[in-house]
């Protein structure tokens, strides 16, 4: 028999900063990439690199939050099926 598995991180940044989980992290990452490309065009390569690095962190954060959301939803669904 299948058992319901509950996977929730105690220090989930998505739970600590819920506003970042609803798309604002993606938007922030996009804004940073736009700024980075502007710096690239100005040949400010060090500044552009820092902006790209920050953008990647925001993209990864947003992806993790979205993944955790889907994982929680599937756990709820599985729990309803097994009940």
Topology overview:
Layout: H1 13-16, H2 18-41, H3 45-82
Write a compact overview of the structure shown.
The protein has 83 residues and is an all-alpha fold. It has helices spanning 13-16, 18-41, 45-82.
Q: What would you note in describing this structure?
A:
This protein has 83 residues and is an all-alpha fold. It has one domain (19-82). It has helices spanning 13-16, 18-41, 45-82. Helix 2 packs antiparallel against helix 3. The protein is rod-shaped, with a radius of gyration of 18 Å. It comes from Ladona fulva (Scarce chaser dragonfly). This is MIT domain-containing protein. Residues 22-83 form the MIT domain. It holds the Pfam family MIT.
Question: Beta fraction of the residues?
Answer: under 5%
- Kindly report the average pLDDT value: 76
Main pleated-sheet profile = none
Terminal Cα span: 12 Å
Question: How many β-strands, per DSSP?
Answer: 0
- Structural shape: rod-shaped
Number of helices: 3
Report the helical percentage: over 70%
* Order of helical and strand elements: HHH
Stretches with pLDDT under 50, minimum 5 residues: 1-11
The SS-based structural class is mainly alpha
| Cα gyration radius (Å) | 18 Å
Number of domains: 1
